[in-house]
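Hey, resending since the last one bounced:
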Amino acid sequence: MTDRRDAGPGGIATGAARIGGWIERGLDAVLALMILVMTGAIVWQVFARYVLDAAPNWSEELARFLMPWVAMVGSAAVLRGGGHVSVTALVERLGRGPAAVIRVVRDLVMLAIALVLIVHGYNFAELNGFQDSPAFEVPMSVPYAAMPVGGVLILLMVIVARLSRPGADWA
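The structure tokens again:
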């Protein structure tokens, strides 16, 4: 006989919450590493420029490459936990039914935006793939790939958030 916690919506919610937690911890670790590397590159840039009088050509580019990745990965990382700024005055005044409808519409809009990021971000990264960066000489599609990857992560986190808390608000 099947255990109801694993077969019904509660089982799905529990599994989605577990998966969401794993993804969030992974994204948090990646973000911490990216921010640490970006901070180190900027500190080295300032130190080398003002103390050694010889600014490296790679540190500024590294920081510029990491910034969109931090923004997109960070956007996905805080989504499930409600870390984005939101105005809830209207939703709090509505009854349960209208508030639930607004949350569904919000989720659909977020999914649509994630799809736009994926499609147009991919096209933009592909369009700029022929150009190499000055210092690292890597294709410019590398920093621009943050948009479609971020879109995929946002899409995934919206779905996980909705599955892990089907009747509740998560933002």
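The radius of gyration is 20 Å.

Sorry for the duplicate.
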